[in-house]
Design brief:
With 191 residues, the protein is mainly α. It contains 6 helices and no strands. Helix 1 runs antiparallel to helix 2. The longest helix has 37 residues. It starts with 6 loop residues before the first helix and ends in an 8-residue tail after the last helix. The relative contact order is 0.17.
């Protein structure tokens, strides 16, 4: 069965879906690593990370399903537009909640002598949290624990912002594909 030919809009939709899947899988990998670290220390993972994982796992499944339906030429464009809009809203929430404390954090200075006192206090607070079994790790404390964590969380934040743009773009593509499919003239039966 040949792939559907929807022109430049169809090609754009496929490229955007692939970029979405790549970004989502990267976010899942980084967030899952943080949750694993927290759980290995017998702590309850941060709600921000659990929420990010939940939204991105659902979104990656949705991207895979809609990509397959598109290739099979059975994608309901209008419903897909609505679902892309809903995922856009969810990803805006993820980007805002994830980025709110990150926007004030300068990863370069973590561990430097100018902030050694605050880093020491943060380390004590994290150690206290880790020493209690089942203690909930505060997201704002976790992101400032070290440079690597800070940069990885900023990567998650940046990818979340990029996903907002990509889902807005895919929603626009699908509404245009829907309009085009409704405006297409009926195929002639004559040869």
């Amino acid at each position: 069965m040949p792939a559907p030919n929807h022109g430049a809009l169809g090609s754009t939709f496929k490229i955007v879906r692939i970029l979405q899947a790549i970004s989502l899988i990267a976010i899942i990998g980084m967030a899952a690593n943080f949750v694993s670290q927290m759980v290995s220390h017998n702590n309850t993972p941060s709600d921000v990370l659990v929420g990010t994982l939940s939204v991105t796992c659902i979104a990656v499944l949705y991207c895979a399903i809609t990509y397959i339906l598109y290739i099979d030429d059975s994608l309901p464009f209008l419903i897909t537009t609505g679902m892309d809009g809903l995922l856009l809203i969810a990803l805006v929430v993820v980007a805002v909640v994830t980025g709110k404390p990150l926007s004030y954090l300068n990863c370069k200075v973590i561990g430097s002598s100018s902030v050694s006192q605050s880093t020491y206090q943060l380390g004590l607070e994290l150690k206290k949290s880790f020493s209690k079994d089942g203690a909930k790790v505060q997201y704002s404390n976790w992101i400032g624990a070290n440079k690597v964590t800070c940069y990885e969380m900023k990567a998650i934040w940046g990818l979340s912002i990029a996903l907002c743009i990509l889902f807005a773009f895919s929603a626009i593509c699908t509404v245009c594909l829907w309009r085009r499919s409704k405006a297409a003239p009926p195929k002639s039966v004559e040869g």
